[in-house]
Design brief:
single chain; 12 strands; Nucleotidyltransferase, domain 5; about 40% helix; binds fe (ii) ion; five-stranded mixed β-sheet; binds adenosine-5'-triphosphate; 2 domains; about 325 residues; alpha/beta
């Protein structure tokens, strides 16, 4: 079975073709970036509108298949920025109408979680989902992904992006912060863990304030990473202890960060647990994960009829019924 998939929830427009044996025959992506400011939703949406047709063409060429050979369409239905989701939905509708094949709507966050299955044979892990707006510690219990802990205001990626934007590093900020942190030393920043939840807005305000007062950006990058990632590691360790699970899977764009991987890995080793991080190629947004999750849902009987195709900007991970 061949699944064609579309991702377009935020900054990345992507098209992939994947089969039920996890073979990836096309993986086309194009990320909207800015030199200085943050992401502007309408600009990102215009980017996607322009790029979807081109990426589809390239994907079919890369996979060496005709559109008539595709069996299933999977699209990212939410959560995400409404203008971006709208363009993804429009393109999905256009293609569903052309090809007259089944369509499944995928939760982008759930696709990040199950993307780990493309690479590893994990059984029942604690997921650390560290992305832009979303940062959650998740455990699959029965038919739901239970959110055991999460950020109270902004996600870890958005926090890094906000800091980067304020100090003029451009978007996305995470990779730049990681680079600069290599030459930094520690300055104290607020560490706020409330039960199983994490609060990151105070630390960013403080770091921006210290930057205005002349603390060098390298030191702030280093200290932001050390402090924020220690909070995440603390909550993950408690989730492991509570559930008695022995695997941790790190997913989402921030999984690309070597220091976060190192901290979680050390904690896991100390507890005899296994640590897996989705590598850079698949940690950020792409359509491969949308296809894989789409195939899982379709095989379990899921499908959306053409008239019911829609989007859900606030679709939470724990609202998805795990039928697969
Ligand atoms: P979500 O999945 O929650 O909807 P998203 O799709 O915007 O959010 P991803 O593409 O999964 O998020 O991740 C993007 C985030 O990852 C950005 O905030 C970016 O700064 C961050 N990021 C990317 N690389 C790194 C890195 N090396 N270190 C830290 N953060 C990083
Ligand atoms: Fe994402």
């Amino acid at each position: 079975m061949l699944c064609l998939s579309f991702e377009g929830t935020a900054h990345t427009c992507a098209v992939a073709i994947v089969n039920a044996k996890k073979q990836i025959s096309a993986d086309q992506r194009d990320q909207y970036t800015t030199e200085k400011g943050g992401i502007i939703p309408n600009e990102a949406a215009a980017h996607h509108k322009k790029l979807f047709p081109e990426l589809l063409k390239k994907a079919l060429l890369e996979a060496k298949v005709k559109s008539s050979e595709i069996d299933l369409i999977a699209y990212s239905r939410g959560p995400g920025l409404p203008p971006c989701l709208h363009e993804t939905l429009n393109f999905t509708k256009y293609l569903a109408n052309e090809l007259k094949i089944p369509v499944v709507g995928v939760n982008h966050s759930v696709a990040h979680l199950t993307s780990a299955e493309l690479l590893y044979s994990v059984k029942n892990p604690i997921y650390v989902y560290a992305a832009g707006p979303n940062t959650q510690i998740i455990s699959l219990e029965g038919k739901r992904f239970r959110i055991m802990g999460e950020v109270l205001s902004i996600g870890v990626g958005n926090a890094l992006d906000k800091f980067a934007r304020e100090v003029g590093l451009g978007f996305p900020g995470g990779p730049k912060v990681e680079q600069l942190a290599k030459n930094g030393k520690y300055v104290e920043l607020p560490y706020v863990v409330k039960g199983m939840d994490i609060e990151l807005s105070g630390i960013i305000t403080k770091a921006i304030d210290l930057h205005k007062k002349g603390v060098v950006v390298e030191d702030l990058c280093f200290s932001l990473q050390e402090t924020m990632f220690a909070m995440l590691t603390e909550v993950t360790e408690r989730a492991l202890a509570h559930t008695q699970k022995n695997e941790v899977v790190l997913v989402g764009g921030v999984a690309a960060n070597k220091r976060l991987c190192e901290m979680l890995d050390i904690m896991c080793r100390e507890r005899d647990a296994k640590f897996y991080a989705v590598p850079l190629k698949y940690s950020g947004d792409q359509a491969v994960m949308i296809a894989w999750q789409g195939i899982k849902q379709f095989n379990a009987g899921d499908q959306i009829h053409f008239e019911k195709l829609d989007m859900n900007p606030l679709w939470r991970t724990d609202q998805v019924e795990v039928i697969w």
